[in-house]
Amino acid sequence: MKRRKFLQSIGALGATSLLPVMGYSMFGKPKYKIGLQLYTIHEEMLKDTIATLHAVKAMGYQDFEIFGFDEKKEMFYGYKSPELRKILEDLQITVSSGHFGFAPYLDKPDDELKRFVDQCIKGAHILDMKYITWPWLAPEQRTMNHFKLMAEKLNLIGEQVTEAGLGFAYHNHDFEFIDHDGENGFDTILKETDPELVKLQMDIYWVVRSSNYSPKELVRNHPGRYVMWHIKDMDRETEDYTELGNGSINYSEILPDPDESGLEFYYLEQGGNFAHSPMKSVADSGDYFKKHLQTYL
To answer: Under a CB-based contact definition with an 8 Å cutoff, are residues 137 and 146 in contact?
Structure first.
């Protein structure tokens, strides 16, 4: 199914009564915490981490995916891991996943990669994360040979992370779906990695924009493997990021069944193209999500 078939050029989604409700508990409460990928507000996090976390908690966000681990200093946002853990505990919020910089290690020896993974595991354990996530490939690495090499590395990392009692996942963008003489990186990842060791974090925006699949089709083909989702909207004209509700993705139509997906966590995200500012955008997207989509999750 081409993405144009399930984009809807509408100003707002329908009433929440149209949404499926299997994600809600028997007591009518959401099954999942409202999550935010902190890259969306990474400049604010670097300027004043504590005030920023206070602000997004007040907006209703309860769980976070972290970004920006400094492995040399073992720090996040200028804080040592135990210091950040104390901040999170004081605020009564959680970090369930982290995006870590694996791409520079793709072409390096396995022992160097293993040392880096050990550092990631240590930081993840201190912050009580559940998942370590590979988020990115550099432009020069987006070849089929590199995708096949990466599949090998993903299995190695997955085994190491799993042995440490954590989960490991790969996050997609658009470049995984580019055709290379009948092959693409995403299919290679699916076929050549162990589904028990390497889970998937589905960026729904990029699936809609760049793939020939719908999110529901991806889940149907590999149920239980998409343990995390990224949720963000698409500008109707430029197809850039935009705030939830301002764009063309009809989430009430395309969200997969969270149980079939194996969903454990989701995160709202907006990588740029803010209508006003990053903080205003995460506030607006959060409000829209709670009003129109949280019934589903």
So the answer is: yes
Cα dihedral 281, 282, 287, 288 in deg (nearest 10)? 70
Q: Judge: domain 3-296, CATH 3.20.20.10.
A: no
Integer Cα distance of 86 and 89 in angstroms: 5
Single-letter amino acid, residue 148: K
Tell me what the mean pLDDT of segment 61-72 comes to.
96
User: Whose CA is closest to 264, among 154, 166, 120, 185?
Assistant: 166
- Tokens standing for 261? 């997906």
Look at the pTM and tell me if it is higher than 0.70: yes
Looking at residue 262, its amino acid is G
CA distance 283 to 178: 33
CB of 172 within 8 A of CB of 203?
Answer: yes
- What's the first-to-final CA gap in the chain, in angstroms? 25
Q: How far apart are CA 259 and CA 256, in angstroms?
A: 9
Residue 259 has which token pair?
């149980």
Residue 161's identity, in one-letter code, is V
Model confidence pLDDT, tens digit, residues 164-194: 999 999 999 999 999 999 999 999 999 999 9
| Tally of CB atoms within 10 A around 37 | 28
Nearest one of 217, 124, 147, 211 to 173, comparing CA atoms: 211
Q: SS3 of 82, please?
A: helix
Residue-wise pLDDT tens digits, 73-85:
999 999 999 999 9
Task: Scan for tokens 């990669």, then name that residue.
Answer: 113
Structure tokens at 85: 């853990």
The two three-digit tokens of residue 5, written as one number: 């078939």
